[in-house]
Structures are given as structure tokens and as C-alpha cells.
TrEMBL record:
CDD domains the record matches: RNase_H_like
UniProt organism field: Hibiscus sabdariffa (roselle)
The protein's name in its UniProt record: RNase H type-1 domain-containing protein
Domain RNase H type-1 residue range list: 2-67
Domain of life from the UniProt record: Eukaryota
InterPro entries: RNase_H-like, RNase_H-like_dom_plant, RNaseH_domain
Amino acid sequence: MDSGLTSCCGVSRDFEGNWCFGFSRDLGLCFVLEAELCGVYEGLATTWSLGYIRIVVEMNCRDAYDMVLYGNISVDIMARLALIGTLAYHRYLNPSSIVRDTLDADKETSVTN
């Protein structure tokens, strides 16, 4: 399993694919799988704190998906991540200009009518 300096990030969009918020967090030194799970956690925590309750989570890491779906191993990893301490967390209420074009292109290809 690969480890190194990692971060997690995510984008939340509404049912039409419009930007709701984005986030990023510097995680320091940890495993890639831990970073993937931290991204899921941060996305859910932020989404719930903003009052959203019906959520669809998409991720591109099969191992993280399996852990969330089938086991409590992910809980153990989250507990270890909490020990990392207070690392930089950023919430983006509006997409940056760098992200906007990519977000629009992704919206066109991923939202089905």
C-alpha cells in the first residue's frame, strides 16, 4: 500500500450538476486509502452541516468503496485520521476560475436527463 504526503478534496453538486461547494484538506503523511476515506468523510460532514440529507456519494477508489459499503474497517481508519491533529481544511462556497471550466465540462458529460 502506497503512503506519502497526501491531501483529500471533493466537489458537491446538486441534482442538476450545479456547484454547491468544494473542499480540500492537507492530510500530511498517510496512506492513499486513508486519504480517499478522509475525502468521503469530509464531504459527508460538510454536506450534512449545510443541511443536505439526501446524498449520493461517488468515488473512484474501489477499496474505499468496499470498506464504506461492507465493513467497519473504515471506522478504524477514520479514528486514526483523527489523531493526525488539526490540519488545514478549506471549504469553497464558489468554484475557483481554475475549476469552473472543468466543472462545466464534467457536468455536461455526467448528468443524465
